[in-house]
């Protein structure tokens, strides 16, 4: 044994030396595996693009397999399209029972169809084979379209009074009532944010009493414009005040963006902080003037986040949508105008008239509610020319209507987990649902909230026959903000009924 160890001690260093010595240094041919740069070049090319070639070999960068959500909440009789996060033709298999009306595509991994029965939560295990391999488990549940929770009315679905005291009669301002709620958004923990007249309230998960208030210096009994700290008295514009906040959205870090309409600005609040750290549209927190440039606003309405972390905002009086790169308060792209100083209105693929709500799809495409033109436009990623129109038969149409193909004063937008489009058709007192589609026009609503499933009604709180009725769980009165939480639950701000409904 000692002899073997001595032999190894002598020969092993010589072997290593000879092996290293046999490898040419700085060999110019990157296709020779003995070249110093062979593996470096190989790895760089493989990671730089989705598909490339190296020395005659095809390199494919296969992203990890998965779906955009782990839990899917599907509404009864609604269209469904659940696709992998990175769509790719392959060989897929599924274990588990799909809800009635849905099928599984073994080539694309898509779950599609229209739900036909209510189900409990069902686990499905999906396997992706070559190219690449992966296994994921997702949960599907089919529910009806009745609301399950209400904010602002002490749990009552038949109240509509602003600032009521729990018995459907007037009361003082508190952390359990609302007055004309506009925007609604949820964070990754399940908490809800609701913007009202001059404040934004935060509600912990599954509770209808807010625990944090923005814009009122921590005072839940105030809803005044620009209050002085500790009072309900009007003051000047500051970092701690809000004046008619409208659209709100939450970023990946659970920070809050809000449109502060009365102060002509957008504020950004880090998570769990009621003091803003960034202001858009104004040079400082005490300014509130209007303008038409890359850094000023005239009646901003909504905000939406781009996949890269950039920010979109719609300005109704400037008839435009602006894009701000991540962290910047200077816009670099304008929709609806030829430049940052123009305010023209119009009816075409490149013009707006009073734009309101915004939402961005998973590909980075932008939907805009062009309210006065009674339509919604869709802009492909990177383009300022619309490629789809909803609510009109062409890009030149602007007539309002109440049929299943029409809109009347659309305001806010949202996308569900299948990327179906939801539109607050405010003047028609309903929220329309349009199936995911790439068609230029001819879109027909497939479902509706607020009209007892009647696609051709326009009255407020109807009783099922397109006639007026009392406030109830299935009616809406001038709906405003709409959004989905990460579990797929729909939130609708039922503005004139002074409540927010959760479905």
Automatic annotation (TrEMBL):
Keyword annotations: Repeat
Official protein name in the record: SMP-30/Gluconolactonase/LRE-like region domain-containing protein
Superkingdom to which the source organism belongs: Bacteria
Sequence ranges of the NHL repeats: 341-382, 406-437
GO MF term list: zinc ion binding
Taxon lineage: Bacteria, Pseudomonadati, Spirochaetota, Spirochaetia, Leptospirales
One Pfam family per UniProt: NHL
